[in-house]
Write a structure and sequence with these properties.
Chain lengths: 139, 502
């Protein structure tokens, strides 16, 4: 891709905005369309764009496979962990009401946390699927 | 903030913990990156799941059905975990197989799966256990589908970890068939939701009553029956099973053979008796007749196919297809005894087929292959393994004092009760086919000499023999003391025949 300078420059400009948009979709999911899955896909797509334009090796240097697979696992742990915290605070599994004194705040906090977990796992999975094929082709 | 008593939390939260502990252990295994740590986590989580399942069964026995509102959302709006006799029994079965196979795993896994992949293997194993436990615990139709996919996706991974490249092919074949199966189930659930606006099983049962004869509900039933038949490998939808069982690593075969298809049988029982109601499912549709003929055909076809297999693992896989026939036959008798036979056979077959596959896993560890030739003289070279194989094999035939006899007893009783002499005769006749295929292995193992140039073979390590012996002893124990298994199955059957809601 070294010779395609337009593609490189445009991607460089766009990438921060793609990642930022992913965060917006993630955080605004409470009030508008969006949420963890969509945000994860957008974030993952941003990373894949980076790998496509700047090469698989460079992408691997930014996101080593051990880090990506940890994010995958930690996302799921975050989701289930919120549920377990609810258990210990006296509610049922994933009953957010017990997280804070005010149930509204508690529900908001609970959903935000599990959606963050979903976002992390989805972004990591999307990137891993792409890299699995890309690195196979390289061999 | 005052924290409630931990013991109280544990007691009321059992239904959630049953699924959450294996679920949480899966990412922990993946994070561990060390096969010993991952194994320790797996062992701890699977045995705690077993303890929880036993506690749940005791609670159901003492206080009746348990209802648990996930997320604090009351049913029918939220997801409900509903534990009655039937699924408490199934949960105990699934988690004990999960725990025993986990205890057996390390030596076998070391020899069949590369070291760097072992943490991921344990991760997929725990996800698969989560899936099957979730299917059994939940009282929400859509949640069943979600856990069905969790169990299915992780079992594709587990099967593809097999040593030969053919494992990938087998996993892919299973993936295609399994996806068709779960899509059909999803379509069925979708139609039900369209007609009733609810997904909670108990609520569905009530709301289905006025719309029972409408076309979407009938269509849903058709999709559901075919989908679940693919999942349980009912003849003639069994084509994915022999390859998957043969090519998967030994541990995986033992686990999936004793849980995967069993849980599909559970789904069928649950939907037919609790959701649709036995009146609708069997009186107003010809499903019972179709299931009886397919299961009898399956028993004979698969048992005959088993006789001609050269690979012992594949032979046992065909035998599994035949045994599914017995369970479905029991369900479609539509009587308390028939259903008891079906449910108890679900439990018993998991024990004996688990023991047989664990024994084959020991042979695989020492001989590296499971062709019939490899078994020559093994009766004297691996005495414990082959003795366990023989006992479990006798149980497969249905010899008295083993669990196989108990199941067949109830099935024949149910057939005679209905005056269906030919069916009873066919069940007895099919046992003779089992005699033939089990005898082939026993004959080779005990009455043929090993080849002159055979390398010396030692018995499998104790870490594998103890779980194998525990399962084998269970096939004898539950064959003699039938109070626990047949008793609970009988109660569950009475509850289901009375409408399935408790």
């Amino acid at each position: 891709m070294r010779e395609h300078s337009i593609v490189r420059v445009v991607s460089k400009i766009l990438l921060p905005y793609i990642l930022l948009f992913a965060l917006y979709v993630q955080l605004h999911g409470d009030y508008g369309p969006g949420g963890g899955f969509q945000a994860g896909v957008i974030f993952g797509a941003g990373c894949i764009l980076y790998a496509l334009v700047f090469g698989v090796n460079k992408a691997r240097r930014v996101a080593p496979s051990s880090v990506v697979s940890s994010i995958m696992a930690i996302g799921l742990m975050l989701y289930a962990g919120v549920g377990v915290v609810c258990l210990f605070k006296g509610g049922n599994f994933l009953d957010y009401n017990v997280l804070r004194h005010d149930p509204h705040h508690a529900q908001e906090l609970g959903v935000a946390l599990i959606e963050l977990g979903v976002g992390m796992t989805v972004a990591a999975v999307m990137f891993t699927i792409f890299m699995t094929y890309a690195e196979r082709a390289k061999k | 903030m005052n924290y409630p008593d931990t013991a109280l939390v544990a007691d009321t939260q059992l239904p959630a913990l049953q699924v959450v502990i294996p679920l949480l252990s899966a990412p922990l295994c993946a994070l561990a990156r060390n096969r010993r740590a991952a194994y320790a986590i797996t062992l701890l989580a699977s045995w705690s799941a077993l303890v929880i399942a036993v506690l749940l069964l005791l609670r159901v026995h003492a206080h009746g059905t348990i209802s648990y509102a996930l997320g604090g959302w009351a049913p029918p709006w939220g997801i409900e975990y509903r534990i009655d006799y039937l699924n408490a029994f199934v949960l105990v079965l699934l988690s004990s197989i999960g725990a025993i196979v986990a205890a057996y795993a390390p030596a076998s896994v070391d020899s069949e799966i590369p070291r760097d992949r072992q943490p991921l293997f344990y991760c997929a194993y725990m996800l698969c256990l989560t899936g099957v436990l979730g299917i059994a615990a939940t009282g929400d139709a859509f949640n069943v589908f979600v856990f069905l996919e969790v169990a299915a996706l992780s079992s594709y991974i587990l099967i593809s970890l097999g040593k030969s490249r053919k494992a990938l092919n087998a996993a892919y074949q299973y993936l295609v068939m399994g996806t068709i199966g779960s899509t059909f189930i999803l379509i069925g659930i979708g139609f039900l939701y369209m007609m009733t606006g609810t997904l909670n099983m108990v609520d569905l049962a009530e709301r289905l009553a006025p719309v029972r004869t409408t076309r979407p509900v009938l269509t849903a039933f058709a999709f559901f029956t075919v989908g679940v038949s693919i999942k349980m490998a009912l003849f003639p939808l069994h084509l994915w099973l022999p390859n998957a069982y043969t090519r998967a690593p030994s541990v995986v075969t033992a686990f999936i053979a004793s849980t995967g298809t069993k849980v599909a049988v559970y789904i069928m029982i649950r939907f037919i008796f609790t959701v649709y109601g036995v009146q609708f499912a069997f009186a107003s549709t010809p499903v019972a007749a179709a299931l009886i003929s397919l299961s009898l055909l399956g028993i004979f076809f698969a048992s005959t196919a088993a006789i001609f297999q050269r690979n012992v693992k594949r032979m046992l896989a065909y035998s599994s297809i035949a045994q599914i026939g017995y369970m479905v036959l029991g369900i479609s008798f539509v009587s308390v005894n028939g259903l008891t036979g079906g449910i108890v056979h679900l439990f018993n077959h998991a024990l004996m087929k688990g023991a047989l596959f664990l024994a084959v896993g020991c042979v695989m560890l020492r001989m590296k292959r499971t062709k019939l030739e490899e078994f020559r003289g093994l009766g004297y070279r691996m005495p414990v393994t082959m003795f366990a194989f023989t006992i479990a094999g006798l149980s497969m035939i249905g010899v008295p004092m083993t669990v196989g006899f108990v199941s067949k007893w109830y099935l024949i009783l149910a057939a005679l009760e209905k005056g269906w002499w030919p069916v009873a005769a066919l069940i007895l006749l099919s046992s003779l086919l089992a005699v033939v295929y089990i005898w082939r292995v026993i004959e080779v193992a005990y009455f043929q000499k090993p080849p002159e140039d055979a390398p010396p073979v030692t018995e499998a390590p104790l870490s594998m023999l103890i779980p194998l012996c525990v399962l084998t002893a269970a096939t004898i124990y539950f064959g003699i003391f039938t109070g626990a298994t047949a008793g609970i199955a009988h109660r569950a059957a009475e509850m289901l025949m009375a409408g399935g809601v408790h």
